[in-house]
Design brief:
Layout lengths: L2 H8 L2 H17 L4 H23 L13 H10 L8 H16 L7 H8 L4 H7 L7 H13 L1
Helix pairs in contact: 2-3, 3-4, 3-5, 3-8, 5-6, 6-8, 7-8
Length: 150
C-alpha cells in the first residue's frame, strides 16, 4: 500500500465506524453498573465476531447472521482461522453469563461469577489483557472484556 492508499483507508467509512464503536465500547465498560458492562460488552463482542467473519466470506449476504447464535459464530471463527479452539472457553462463559442475566428472572451476577469467567481465560488471553494480580476484580473483568473485543 502506498501512502495515498493508506490515507484513503484510514479515512474510509469502515475505519470511522470502527473508531466510533471502539469509543462507545470503552465508554460502556467503564460504567459502574455491572449488568450494563456485561450485556453491552457481549453485544459489542458479538458484533465484532460478525464483522470478522464477514471479512473472510466471499458472499456475506448468503448468511443471515441474526439467525446464527453466539456459539456457532465462535465455531465459524475457529473454522475460518480467526480464533483458536483454546480461546473459546472465555467467550462461551461470557455468553452463559449473558444468557443467565437475560433469561433467569432472579439471577444476579456475583463476584464468584466474575471469578469463574476470569478463570476461563487462557494464558495468552491473560497476557494480552495485561491482567495483573493487584488489579481489582472489576478492573480485571473490564480488561478481559476489552481484550476479547479487540
Amino acid at each position: 500500500m502506498n501512502s495515498q492508499e493508506v490515507e484513503a483507508f484510514l479515512n474510509s467509512e469502515e475505519v470511522k465506524e470502527l473508531k466510533m464503536d471502539h469509543e462507545k465500547f470503552f465508554d460502556t465498560i467503564n460504567s459502574n453498573n455491572l449488568l450494563t458492562v456485561l450485556l453491552k460488552a457481549h453485544l459489542f463482542i458479538e458484533s465484532n465476531l460478525v464483522r470478522l467473519i464477514k471479512k473472510e466470506l466471499v458472499n456475506e449476504e448468503a448468511i443471515d447472521f441474526s439467525r446464527v447464535n453466539f456459539p456457532l459464530k465462535l465455531q465459524l471463527c475457529v473454522a475460518l482461522g480467526i480464533y483458536e479452539e483454546k480461546d473459546l472457553p472465555a467467550y462461551l462463559k461470557l455468553n452463559k453469563l449473558r444468557n443467565d442475566v437475560a433469561h433467569k428472572l432472579h439471577f444476579e451476577v456475583e463476584e464468584k461469577d466474575i471469578k469463574s469467567f476470569l478463570s476461563t481465560l487462557n494464558a495468552d488471553q491473560i497476557k494480552y489483557a495485561l491482567i495483573e494480580e493487584g488489579d481489582s476484580l472489576m478492573y480485571r473483568f473490564r480488561k478481559a472484556l476489552a481484550s476479547m473485543y479487540l
